[in-house]
């Protein structure tokens, strides 16, 4: 069994490589989330990654790597579509308590875990929604809609466009650069930036795709 200090050191070093400054309480919450994930995973099979030492880079750092590239001000409403067991939503909520995170998934097993996690971690800025995204009708639209391996870009945009604020953006987390997916976007949606992400502990490509409605 890996020591808690080793996990803490891995997280701290990874955050430093990403240029992120999180206080000790935030880092403790992130590791608490990993602990909950490991515990629930034994019964619920939430993620194929079962070792905490792999969860730190693959779930925490992978979710936090795009943080500097998110265009969201204090008080921003952010929707994590197909949140699953809470990535990137829960790590983002811990890192930015000034944002309002909405974690949406249609899988009751996964949202049961999410609800318990936000209670245990005392995350007041997180709302869990058990619903299909195309049926979701919130009280207000979202400044940023994000996802991690939810669908291809065209489908992602199609299913969520009714949820995006007029000046908002989609921020989709992808692996390899999705040239074909970008080429297949509808005419009224454009890619305005693609950030290459280097995630400590992960030897694989990562990109953040920024999409907006094309007013022209």
Automatic annotation (TrEMBL):
The keyword Methyltransferase applies. The keyword Amino-acid biosynthesis does not apply. Keywords: Cytoplasm, Methyltransferase, rRNA processing, S-adenosyl-L-methionine, Transferase. It holds the Pfam family GidB. Transmembrane segments: none annotated. It catalyses: guanosine(527) in 16S rRNA + S-adenosyl-L-methionine = N(7)-methylguanosine(527) in 16S rRNA + S-adenosyl-L-homocysteine. SUPFAM superfamilies: S-adenosyl-L-methionine-dependent methyltransferases. Its EC number is 2.1.1.170. It is found in: Cytoplasm. S-adenosyl-L-methionine binds at residues 82, 133-134, 148. Specifically methylates the N7 position of guanine in position 527 of 16S rRNA. HAMAP family: 16SrRNA_methyltr_G (MF_00074). Belongs to the methyltransferase superfamily. RNA methyltransferase RsmG family. This is Ribosomal RNA small subunit methyltransferase G.
């Amino acid at each position: 069994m890996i020591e808690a200090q080793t996990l803490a050191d891995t997280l701290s070093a990874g955050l430093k490589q990403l240029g992120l400054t999180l206080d000790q309480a935030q880092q403790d919450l992130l590791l608490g989330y990993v602990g909950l994930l490991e515990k629930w995973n034994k019964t619920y099979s939430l993620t194929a990654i079962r070792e905490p030492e792999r969860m730190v880079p693959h779930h925490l750092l992978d979710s936090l790597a795009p943080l500097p590239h998110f265009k969201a001000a204090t008080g921003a409403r952010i929707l994590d579509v197909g949140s699953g067991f809470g990535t990137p939503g829960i790590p983002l909520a811990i890192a930015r308590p000034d944002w309002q995170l909405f974690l949406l998934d249609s899988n009751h097993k996964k949202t049961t875990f999410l609800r318990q996690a936000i209670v245990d971690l005392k995350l007041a800025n997180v709302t869990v929604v058990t619903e299909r995204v195309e049926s979701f009708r919130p009280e207000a639209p979202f400044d940023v809609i994000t996802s991690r391996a939810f669908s291809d870009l065209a489908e992602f945009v199609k299913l969520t466009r009714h949820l995006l604020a007029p000046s908002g953006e989609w921020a989709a987390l992808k692996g390899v650069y999705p040239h074909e997916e970008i080429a297949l976007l509808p005419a009224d949606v454009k890619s305005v930036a693609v950030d290459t992400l280097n995630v400590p502990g992960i030897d694989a490509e990562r990109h953040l795709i920024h999409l907006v409605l094309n007013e022209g």
